[in-house]
Amino acid sequence: MRLNITLLIAALLLLAFVVEVVRRRRLSESYALLWISVAVVGVVLGLARPVIDRVSTALGVSYGSNLVFAVVCLFLLVVAVNLSVHVSRLEGKVERLAQELALRDVTREDRSVLRDPTTSTGDFPRGLDDE
Amino acid sequence: MQIDADGQHDPAEAALLLRAVDDGADLAIGSRFAPGSGEYEVSSGRRFSMRVLARLVSRRIGQPITDTTSGYRAYSARSIALFAEDYPSAYLSDTVESLLIAHYAGLRILEVPVSMRERMGGVASNSVLRSTYHLIRLMLVIALSRFRRPVSKGN
């Protein structure tokens, strides 16, 4: 029984935290929906102990809490991998963006050099070795 | 003025929206569903979403809004000043959430019936799953709208 209450409180805290970061616009609503549903599932699990017990017996797991633990671990693993994929894609995009911007700067400086030869700073366009 | 580029909005009706702003509205919305607007056919799923959004938003701002996702709008100087600081960019948030932002900033919102034409190019963004997701997302946005920080104050 105490386990249920702990789970319930944890889920409600998660819910409150997620709502607060969305309110501050630190978290986009799409991710908030994911974590809000996690919190709701947590609340349901906290309230529906008999359901867990029945499911775990049906699956041949002797302790309901073990089943919950395993499922939660698996879920978090999937989320973590998913986020890594997402971050990788974003990294690629940022890199590409930085490179394109740098190239654009170089061509612009190049042009101004062509227009006014006295401002020339060397035989290589500036910008490439800036960083 | 804000107008869709796919030919759905009749530029001739811009005058109606501008007149509403001249008459004191800060945000004039061209509505496809207000009494007096032309026929506009939508799929049943889309219609359902639009009805739900209209009801939720209307209740929030205490004034009937029939078309929350209309992108045919005219702005007063005051609303331009507000939205230059604080304007959501996510899909559909730009229309729905900006309405709520305008309301909480004390701007006067007015709906003007307009007729919509078939779009001349492009495809409507659709898919049952996606629109359900967006509907739920917008419900969250609407629920939190009153307490949220301005977009510009986020990270």
Structure write-up:
- The complex is a heterodimer of chains A (131) and B (155).
- With 131 residues, chain A is an all-alpha fold.
- Chain A is built from 4 helices and no strands.
- Chain A has helices spanning 2-23, 29-47, 49-59, 64-115.
- In chain A, 79% of the residues lie in helices and 0% in strands.
- Chain A folds into 2 domains: 1-47; 64-118.
- Chain B is mainly alpha-helical.
- Chain B has one domain (11-150).
- Chain B is built from 5 helices and 3 strands.
- Chain B has helices at residues 14-22, 44-61, 77-85, 93-104, 128-144; strands spanning 27-31, 73-75, 109-113.
- In chain B, strands 2-1-3 form a 3-stranded mixed sheet.
- The longest helix of chain B has 18 residues, at 44-61.
- The chains are: A mainly alpha (131), B mainly alpha (155).
- At the A-B interface, helix 1 and helix 2 of A face helix 5 of B.
